[in-house]
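Side project, low priority. Logging it here so it doesn't get lost.
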Amino acid sequence: MFVRGELSGSANFRAAIEKSKVLVYKTHMHFIPRAISKVVLEAARHFPAVVLTGPRRAGKTTLLRRLFPRASYVLLEDPDVQGRARSDPRALLDELTPPALFDEIQNAPELLGYVRTRIDQSPRRMGQWLFTGSQEAPLMRGVSESMAGRAAILHLLPFSLAESDRVSLLLGGYPEALARPKARHLWFSSYLQTYLERDVRSITNVRDLATFRRFLALLASRHGQVLNKTDLAAPLGVSVPTLSDWLHVLEVTGQIILVPPYFENFGKRLIKSPKMYLGDPGLACHLLGIMSLAELNRSPFLGALFEGFVAAELIKSQVNSGRRKELYYFRDQQGLEVDFLFPGPGGRLWMAECKAAKTVQPAMAGPLLSLRRSMSRPPARLLLVHRRSQAAPATHALSPGVAAVDVRGLLNLLAGGQ
């Protein structure tokens, strides 16, 4: 697996760029093709620039360097390169031979305006400018201001189960956690520390990082629940506006998934707050102190963690095919709840209920059938998603109109595989 090199402090910037292409080390994990690769290559054929956003360490740099091996590589986390980008951006660009890859562009957003000028000078040259960024909202502001109509915006998340059999509820999908599963808790601890020091402080003024760490652990304990900001703020001793800022930081850096409620004219009062999940199940297990599969199976959080795992896989299936995120839940004040509603192939509505059990019963389909009876336009598919059993088939009929599937079976259905 490739990793980003470091730019030297040499005065010879071109030599520094070449040095940055050196592979510093390899992990124990060979390169795994990413599902979004075809979308990235297609975007590079039709847009002068491609911007790939996503959480830190999801594999953005690795993917772009693999797909565009001849691209000049510039790491914008290097202080010397940042200074050069700000003090003399034209000279920096003059010394590059496109295609060029700028890693972590949010550290030097001023470059985007100068790149735009070069794009406008040669508007028919496609795929010449490649960017990665780990802070979606700040980066998007720069792109919308400088690169409107000139850049394709794509989002890379950690590995999905469709990409690697190593992905699991316990390990999650981050490449390093999958490459070294025995050291994953040390990696997650280091990841959180780096995340706090870099992304959190660069986006908002968090004065007390210890309280923010407690906030992350508290969020893990509320994984899969309807978001109640007042309930979260009280034990931390912070205001609701402060907590809202913190949630915004987590959302724009790809660390949480907020699933909004699904609205239709049901003639009943609905819950209107979103549900919250940590974006990676391995990170959620780490924050909850779950160290092994045996602990996971005994954990009172197993159901919520499995639900979050399904949510993350559904989001990944959407963004990996270049589509926007569309995932909803339903809950009314009478207690009827369905975990997920989302567009399936062809755009028709699908509904899914998640159960961490490996043995499913027809009664578990009750909420799906009840909601279907309330809808003016019935959904195309009703699915009960459960944990995989070695003995059970991946997909089977549970009750009339409802199929029971494991997570891989769900992904196969979304991909049109069966």
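Brief comment: Residues 211 and 237 are 9 Å apart (CA to CA).
Revisit when time allows.
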